[in-house]
Design brief:
Chain A: Belongs to the binding-protein-dependent transport system permease family. Chain A: It is found in: Cell membrane; Membrane. Chain A: It is a multi-pass membrane protein. Chain A: This is ABC transporter permease subunit. Chain A: One of its GO terms (cellular component) is plasma membrane. The complex is a heterodimer. By secondary structure, chain A is mainly alpha-helical. Chain A has a single domain, classed as Orthogonal Bundle (MetI-like fold), CATH 1.10.3720. In chain A, 73% of the residues lie in helices and 0% in strands. Chain A starts with 16 loop residues before the first helix and ends in an 11-residue tail after the last helix. By secondary structure, chain B is an all-alpha fold. Chain B has one domain: MetI-like (MetI-like fold, Orthogonal Bundle). In chain B, helix 2 runs parallel beside helix 5 and helix 3 packs across helix 5. The chains are: A mainly alpha, B mainly alpha. Chains A and B meet through helix 2, helix 3, helix 6, helix 7 and helix 8 of A and helix 3, helix 4, helix 7, helix 8 and helix 9 of B.
Amino acid sequence: MIAASVFDLPSYVQHSYLGLVGEQLKVSLGATAAGLLLSLPVGQACARWRRLYPPVLGLVTVAYSIPSLALFVLLIDYTGLTDTTIFIPLAIYSLCILVPGVVDGVRTVPREVLIAADAMGYGRARRYLQVELPIAAPTIMAAVRAATISSISLMSIGAVIGNLGGLGQLFTVGLKAFNLQLVWLGLFSLVVLALLCDLLLRLGQRLMTPWADRRSAQP
Amino acid sequence: MSLVDYIRQFFADPQFQHGYDGIWQRIAEHCWYSLIAFLCAAAIGLPLALLTGHFGRGDGPIAALAAVGRAMPSLGLIVLLAVKIGVFNFYAVLIPLVALAVPPILLTTHEGLRAVERSVVDAARGMGMRPWQVLLRAEIPSALPLILSGLRTAAVQVVSTMTIAAVIPFGGLGRYVVDGLSEYRYYEVVGGGFLVVVLSVLTLVLFAVLNRLLVSPGLRAGNRG
């Protein structure tokens, strides 16, 4: 007989462990990806028109300072108690972390390289995809890793407003039931998940930019 | 009803105008506990980072600590300590808040000192300054914008995490959010959320003012060559 494992959650959690992990990954990684997609054009615009950057940076700093719980509850009126209510704030926070990263990344591209690409007949789109993005990639990826880690840990706060927040529910349910084991499981899983995603992103970055200086991969 | 209507309803409700659940009372609680946590974190993080930054040691461990700090779910830490050492216990809130606020202070202060140009340090030394004078009169003033930005990140994080402390249950503005949710009074939830947003934006403003007052004009972004 195998003893009941730590991962067999008591029935009052109303989810399986893997279900919670899946939800956690789906929402937090999805939100980070959405933030990345939005931050690329915004960052590019800020790098191109320099005067745009200070106001955007100010806006991003203010938005990032808004507590996640406050954003969650203010959104309940519009999106209800659904994953969207968690997804939107996480995407906003990711955007806030990523925009400075993208701007710094794009600024690391030397002018001469751009001129050389133009001289070789690269069109704007091709120059962007094949020259600018790869050179900016290490800096952008550092920001992507920070955004991913913070999305994963921030999402757990969603559990405060209801049956949301992925693994964060282990905290709220654990508190109600005074079940320390659930709380430990939640903490452990979230930290491992965050560090695992970080590791995978680091590996991905190595594969994508094998020429990059190893030291620039540091956070 | 729009959010504005909810907020208006919240401020009009006599229940929240005075007494233990009054708005000013909750704001005072929130600020007071946040301030204590922030000062503890600064008292731990600043001296440590000033030492590591000055001597140029510990880049790796500090970066790793910052990553772990970012990955650490605050709700989990608060609940863990609440269940372990008892709800209604300030330490169950204080310890996680400090644990979350120390890494950003540590990282940015350390990086700020490391980023001070060598020529500035050399010049200070050449003028005959002792090592602690170099730290106090050359390194810290040059690194001040970054040091302040680390303190700002920590302060904002403390103010927002303080909201979550209401789940264990503890005072502060998070009370409105948690109580409102459990009693289906959505206007109370929105009102609490609104006040928290105001408080964190005010924290940012405070640090912008500090930046203006303390940072040497020569170092401000706009005035650089």
